[in-house]
Write a structure and sequence with these properties.
alpha+beta; CBS-domain; 4-stranded antiparallel sheet; 23% helix; globular; single chain
Amino acid sequence: MKWGRMVARSISRVSHPVLHLEVVDRDGIQTAKPRVFCRLRRESIDVELCRSCARAYAIRDGPAPSVDCKVVPPAGALDADPLGLRTEVGTLLKNGSMVVGASASVQDALRFLRAQDLRSVAVVGDDHILVGVLYDVALTERGDIPGRELDDVTTVMSHAIAIHEATPVRRALLFLAAAHLRQAAVVDSEGIPLGVFRDVDGLRWLARARGGEIDPAWIDDH
């Protein structure tokens, strides 16, 4: 009985936000398969894989969809990480992201940026792999844009700068600072965007972690 109670206390709940990828192209908005960043695997996986996992006990819809699991956290998983040296940026992602397809027109991209009030957006190919990034200044400051509104965005996009999902928060912040960026796309090992990591999100997370809070992604059952 004593051993059984000890095991029960070690079981925790973890909530994985569902990350949706929506691609804007000439035909409208295409939706990719939703994914989650699994804390145990330390990588993103298809939500359908969660459905077949014995640890998952709820898949929630609504404005903040998530997959809830009951797991036995690895040793040290509940320890505070005040310097952000081991907590992956993938754990900070909440909603996924909207990107622009390489076949989208300059006009489509400009309309999207203005509607979302964004300064930049990732560009993906037909396989949803990141191929570049489009900055609003490329569409508003270049004198040769008028008359090319129907050209593909690949003609005005820049080299893609991305952060791998397993990159520790602190390292990701240093990367953004060195590149003089405020945000960058977060991608999986195949180069598919999962969301956006912003410096303000990383700094807020560090502030909470330094305040002695347990990583909010882990919620003890007892």
